[in-house]
Write a structure and sequence with these properties.
Strand 1 and strand 2 form a beta hairpin. Strands 2-1-4-3 form a four-stranded antiparallel beta sheet. It has a single domain, classed as Beta-Lactamase. 43% of the residues lie in helices and 16% in strands. It is of the alpha+beta class. It is globular.
Length: 173
């Protein structure tokens, strides 16, 4: 029989998973599943189209991405003259907001060098730049919308907020 040596953290995690939890009896009275609200593709598309229209009106050519609460891409729209980088950046901004449960502008501030969360900038998917906001309703995160291509994160944020505003009435529950 071959022995495998695990790092301490891995061994501790395996041991914790194998041991019964304190208060297991209380867990039995809890439901075994839970429900979440998700955006329909149509609602995600409406938000993306509104964000794109807002940017166009301001004279910006952008890409807009809408992700679900897990950061999975639902919609990606790129205006005809938006830079090629925007199709990579917009989804990463949206993923960052959804993953961190905060606007990407706040992520940018909280991950600056010397801050406790600075190590997160090493994540390959993380985009620490303004331009993505959460899509929330009744205290629940439904997803995020990210915009890339406007001249700066503030302008991208404005377009993203316009996308959320366009669906606000439809998503309140």
């Amino acid at each position: 029989m071959r022995h495998v040596h695990l790092p301490r953290w891995a061994a501790a995690a395996l041991l914790a998973a194998a041991l019964p939890c304190a208060g297991t009896a209380g867990a039995q009275s809890q439901p075994a599943t839970y429900s979440v609200k998700l955006l329909t593709p149509e609602t995600a598309l409406t938000a993306a189209q509104a964000a794109l229209a807002h940017c166009r009106k301001a004279g910006y050519q952008v890409a807009v991405a809408v992700v679900d609460r897990s950061g999975l891409l639902q919609v990606l729209l790129r205006d005809r003259f938006a830079g090629p980088h925007t199709i990579d950046v917009a989804p990463r901004k949206a993923w960052t907001a959804a993953s961190m449960r905060m606007p990407s502008t706040e992520v940018a501030a909280e991950t600056q060098a010397g801050k406790p969360m600075s190590g997160l900038r090493a994540l390959p998917q993380l985009m620490a730049a303004g331009g993505a906001v959460l899509i929330e309703a009744s205290g629940a995160t439904l997803g995020a919308i990210g915009v890339s291509g406007a001249p700066g994160g503030d302008a991208d944020d404005d377009c993203a907020r316009a996308g959320v505003k366009a669906i606000a009435d439809a998503i309140e529950f």
